[in-house]
Amino acid sequence: MTDLDLSPRPGAAPARQQVLAQARMEARLMLRNGEQLLLAVVIPVIVLIGGVTGADRIGISLEHAAIDVFTPGVLALAVMSTAFTSLAIATGFERRYGVIKRLGSSPLPRSGLLAGKVLALLLVECLQVVVISAVAFALGWDPDPHVFGAVLAIVAGTAAFASLGLFVAGVLRAEATLAAANLIYLLLLAGGAVVLPISAYGAFGDVVRWLPSGALGSAMRASLIDGAVAWRDLGVLLIWTVLGTALTARTFKWE
Amino acid sequence: MPDASPAVAVDGLVMRYGEKVAVDRMSLTVERATITAVLGPNGAGKTTTLETCEGYRRPQQGSVRVLGLDPVRDRRALLPRIGVMLQGGGAWSGVHAMEMLDHIARLHAHPLDTGLLAERLGLGECGRTPYRRLSGGQQQRLGLAMAIVGRPEIVFVDEPTAGMDPQARRTTWELLRELRESGVTVVLTTHYLEEAEQLADQVHIIDHGQLIASGTPEELTRGSSATVRLVVDKELPVAAEAALRASIDRWSGENGVGVRSISFGSRTLEDVFLELTGRDLGTAIGSDIGRDVDDD
């Protein structure tokens, strides 16, 4: 009837192929989802344009041109939205729909699943950087970048926010994760020194600089405005990564 | 893979959820290249037993071996060799049916041709349909396809035809039989007696976490000594039934034997279940609260 040969011929694909397949799948699903795309690209671009055009009118005093201050901040925001909010929501629903359980009986090991997720995040972030930078250049962005510092900041920020996102997704139900991840995103956007520099927060600056959002924003601004590597902020992100990973490892349920 | 260990060997398995004993000193063996049905009402412990074989749960007491391996300790070695069909779900809601199947195929070294497999299971037309828009039966068949696409030695299928229309059920049965002919061991749970009777070489009936009977469908449906079974070679007219009853009544009256019941028809696994548990499977399913497993 068909040429299907059902006789057993088991075997796992090479680990690299498995991780790439997982990364490709996750990235595709992330980009296909309208809400996630809104979070990943549309909101950051709106914040960028709104910030640049609004800064003059409201008269926020910045030490540099508005576009030069806002672009690194918006890139940090984009990293936060993908590594934290999108990842948490996607993982929460993967638990709910039994995807993680299903993959748990496939040859893909859990380390491979995690590697695939991280790779997918980095892929989506590359696209975000391209789109946001293009808009920024169109608005007259003229950076003096320390590229290595910026890459370090993005990687460290991704690690910190992804570990925290997985923690949220691992302990809450899918709907609660959706709500919490969006709420935390909004709170950090408004008060977490992502888009606006620490100096804009006055006395609270000493607090927000210890938040992962403040550290990531500062590290991005240091690398793209001052052309420097912000080791202190990278250290803060590392601490959050260790904390988030420890919490996730203790609490995460795969089903 | 020429080792002689059975496909599955469960020995004295005990699994509890809090106070509730889900599996109670279960022991059973599954031979290779057979279809084995684990039959019982919802809540009997079928899924828990299966998930312990699949390595999702660690035996609290007793041991489980699959292809001679410990499903928890030897997980990485075992997983490529088994296929698992979950009772439901297992796919992203926005993923297209074929995309999902192709993805699982890519995790394996020698997967089946996904196009042929999908066609074989009647999924050819819904390849671009998002998972959440598939009908229940289509989702079930996709689940089966994902379980066998990696060419496993054993497939564990949990309620494979629940909610399927008769056509899809036949297609699924045919495929499961073909898997057996190809040398694959099939372990399925079901609460459909017909499914066990039609499909299985070996049936294990479980209830309240305990194995209450094992055997081939023929062995299980063979009568006990207090039962007299009369098999005739043609369909009887209605009048014959009355005549038979009358002559049995006469004979039993003369010989002082009380006849408890006379039934016409054939003995089924349903009868066996009723005898063993005192309940019929329909009410057992209706009255048992909850499912086999409380997720999370």
Automatic annotation (TrEMBL), chain A:
Record-linked InterPro entries: ABC2_TM, ABC_2_transport, Nod_factor_ABC_transporter
Broad class of where this protein is predominantly found: membrane
Subcellular location: Membrane
Transmembrane feature ranges: 37-55, 75-93, 114-141, 147-172, 184-204, 234-252
Ranges for domain ABC-2 type transporter transmembrane: 18-222
Membrane topology designation: Multi-pass membrane protein
Keyword Membrane (UniProt): yes
GO MF annotation: an example: ABC-type transporter activity
Keyword Transmembrane among record annotations: yes
GO BP, sorted A to Z: response to antibiotic
Entry GO terms, CC: ATP-binding cassette (ABC) transporter complex
Annotated keywords: Antibiotic resistance, Membrane, Transmembrane, Transmembrane helix
Protein name: ABC transporter permease
